[in-house]
Amino acid sequence: MTAIWTTLAQAEALADALGRDDLVVFDTRASLAAPGAGEAAYRQSHVPGALYAHLDRDLSDFSSPHVSGAGRHPWPDVIAFTAWLGSRGVTPSHQVVAYDDGDGAYAARLWFLLQALGHERVVVLDGGWSRWNAQGLPVDTAIPEPVPRTYRAASEARFDRDRLLDAEAVQAHLSQGGLLVDARAAERFRGEVEPIDRKAGHVPGAVNRPYARNLVEGRFKSPEQLAEEFAQLFEGHAPRDVVAMCGSGVTACHHLLAMAHAGLTGAKLYTGSWSGWIEEPSRPIATGEK
Predict the structure, then answer these.
(1) Which one from 11, 245, 246, 252 is the annotated catalytic residue?
(2) Who is most buried in 78, 178, 195, 262, counting CB within 10 A?
(3) How many Å apart are CA 41 and CA 79, to the nearest integer?
(4) pLDDT category, 1, cuts 50, 70, 90?
């Protein structure tokens, strides 16, 4: 019986699985500074058979007028997203593997999009493209032509909205004693620098854990170590009482993946995150450690 992967896959295991009929691999390499760089790198070389998923075009929704509070990477419309999955030949029975340059931050966005659809058979390639190359595993330049399928009927396609929060829901969550974890770098959380968004600082009441702390030497820490570290951060909160955020709802998914890898399931995402929070000038902003 074929193993089902749900959080992380190792490069060697993926190499052995290439060619499986139920396998779809996505290259999600991206650069916020150069939006076309990831796709250009994909066209130069990629995991054999991999398709490309663009952060802005495929994993976000810029097709309709901007919804207030949606942030820099608006969460996709479920009909549009499942149509894209179908165009890539993905069905609910497929095993999906996503990878990026290395740390998994962009791949985790695709991972959580599928998780929120109820698609459990999706993983991030641990160590990504960097480790794949370091292991000397095969690469290709051919661009596959997927056979379109129907992912799910439009009437049945839905995200788990209980795990996707907007600003008002985040405020209610905090007022009820819930935990909000900001995945941005510490200096951005403290408001000392802000290289991307127009205001610096953080949501009052949030705590900071940069997503890079989930990694050691470019790969995810063990489930045991992550469980211990998140337990200290949670201070008694259950995973379902935790919401992750970042700058635009992308790297926060890295925390959700790390938690799931540690057996801590049920945490939620603030989809608009910091860039969505500051769209409303009246919302409070905190600086410093707290």
Answers:
(1) 246
(2) 262
(3) 29
(4) very low
